[in-house]
Amino acid sequence: MKYVDEYRDPRLAERLLDQIRRTVTRPWTIMEVCGGQTHTLIRSGIDRLVPDGLRLVHGPGCPVCVTPLEQIDRALAIAARSEVIFCSFGDMLRVPGTSSDLVRVRAEGGDVRIVYSPLDAVRIAGENPGRQVVFFAVGFETTAPATALAAWQAKHARLQNFSMLVAHVVVPPAMEAILSSPTNRVEGFLAAGHVCTVMGYEDYSTLAERYRVPIVVTGFEPVDLLEGILMTVRQLESGRYVVENQYARSVLRAGNLSAQNILAEVYEVCDRPWRGLGILPRSGLRLRPAYHDLDAEKRFAVQSIKAVEPPECRSSEVLQGLIRPDECAAFGTLCTPDRPLGAPMVSSEGACAAYWKYGRSL
Amino acid sequence: MTEPINCPMPHPPGERVLLAHGEGARLTRRLIRDILLEAFDNEFLRPLSDGALLPAVAGRLVMTTDSYVVSPLFFPGGDIGKLAVHGTVNDLAVCGAAPLYLSLGLIIEEGLSLEVLRRVIFSIRDSARQCAVPVVTGDTKVVPRGAADALFVNTTGIGRMRPGVDLGPHRVRPGDRLLVSGTIGDHGIAVLSAREGLDLGASLQSDTAPLYELVQSLFESGIDVHFLRDPTRGGVSAVLHEVADATGLSVVLEEPAVPLSEPVRGACELLGLDPLYVANEGKLLLIAAPEDAERARGILRQNAVGARAAIIGEVANLTPAQVLVRTSLGALRVLDEPTGAPLPRIC
Fold first, then answer.
1. CB-CB: which of B329, B334, B346 is closest to A139?
2. A357 vs B320: CB contact, 8 Å cut-off?
3. Among A274-283, B14-23, B212-221, which stretch is predicted with the lowest mean pLDDT?
4. Which of B161, B181, B209 is the last residue of a domain?
5. Judgement on whether residues B231 and B287 belong to the same structural domain of the protein
6. ipTM of the predicted structure?
């Protein structure tokens, strides 16, 4: 398969591993930002093949995982209403709220539907004029342009029965929060290639400069990740800290301008709470005033719903790369994919799920 | 001014299944006579009594039952009728039995188009003929709209156990090889793409197929098969976990050796699914002694259904008993048991 096989080539991977082993002379801690990268690392076993001193920690780049509990509870409250068709990406269905999840809401009679594109939710609204259709808009800069397009289409089609529960977040403020924390251990970043495909990587230069940390925009296949790791350790070993682009087949410095335009048309930057990281300034996207009619939080008056995270769940530390999932006492005991305490255990990109699924508990 | 007519014209009787079709009266008899008996006519069914009177059989019998609730009823490469025959015949086959008789139970949602019902029934007829197994008894129920999703089918199969065959986890030994009879994940991906209206290309087809001949060819060639399953729901992963649980041994799967069709591979990449967890409806997983493995693969490959058979792993005496995958980079990882239905990822 083109664009897949060449990036999984075992001989190329072996050569890169060899170069990494020869480059590394002392311990380093590198964080991959995106949950998709975490899964590739664990699934292909790269974390077990790199030299011992090279510690790979997993970042906050799983949109499902960083969506705060109260936003999940708001989604559940809306989805349970009889007039609502609640549309969501599949990943959100099993994410636990305080006392339920979307799968359970559906079993109890809620009309919860998995969609693959936000535009499907707009179509469903057009087909069901007597029902309220709500789309759960979660994700980073990668999914936000598609949800923005859905909002734009609904507004221009004058759909009265469509709204969105928006929980979008953007990556650079989270990287900054990690770097500026006194407990930070991250010395180099693999930035998320897909996010940079949309946004470009000019923003990252400031971060690299200010925190003296190498940032390599990296893809998602094993060879991409190995190359990204090699580029990062080369910078670390030689004391450089610049932004480099490993994922040049997809990422331009300026990003995708059409996608950025639709984002700017529909959304504005806001402060937003992240699960595990607290409220991060200028880290979220919310609907601009011209789109307030589409705001499901207002339409269904759920802003007052607040929630408290379960104390046993250490996902906040996992999401900051402070502990590995298997260093949490609840991992595999109180918290399993069947009975998750926190989102990282259920999301397909969650670090806890990756550790569980690929047996890092053993 | 007259009111516009907004009351839909009633469908002519006979076009759709009505509740009365299930109530044992005239309409039921007509349904049975016009559709079911026409499709399945045989000496055991023809008396239409409460049960089929069957002749005595020498040797041991195997009996299995399965219910089919797939949505949509028709999907690329198959339909609920084919599944209902192949699934039950395959369950007999992997027990080591030759299919003898099938029963057929239909639970029909009121309002189902009779044309759809007829298509399913004739698909069942064709599949049963292909497997040379008669439908000897049956039952039809119609439930109110909303109480079922269009059509549910149950089939029970009775088969004759092949003498001398001994299959099961008790026969699995360390060093035994694991084989699969072809590409995996085809059925699950075909149904998923039909259900969700994903346009993933015309070449995605369910693999639904009868496996009896394939199994038969292994036995006739004298292959000493130790363990045999058709990896349906939960895919290959579910079966391998069953092996590890029941034997206390580990299974090491060589990931690059697992056959995959390009469309399934592409769809799994796109949807974030692991084909090892995706359902199959026409594949065998078998475990045999290492000295038999290559010959078994050759025999499977002689049959069109087994053309892409491969040796994909081996049984190992590693503790704790688990299912391991050797990746293309040579690292070993644990393959988790399937939990719930796989959900597509979001970015």
1. B346
2. no
3. B14-23
4. B161
5. yes
6. 0.74
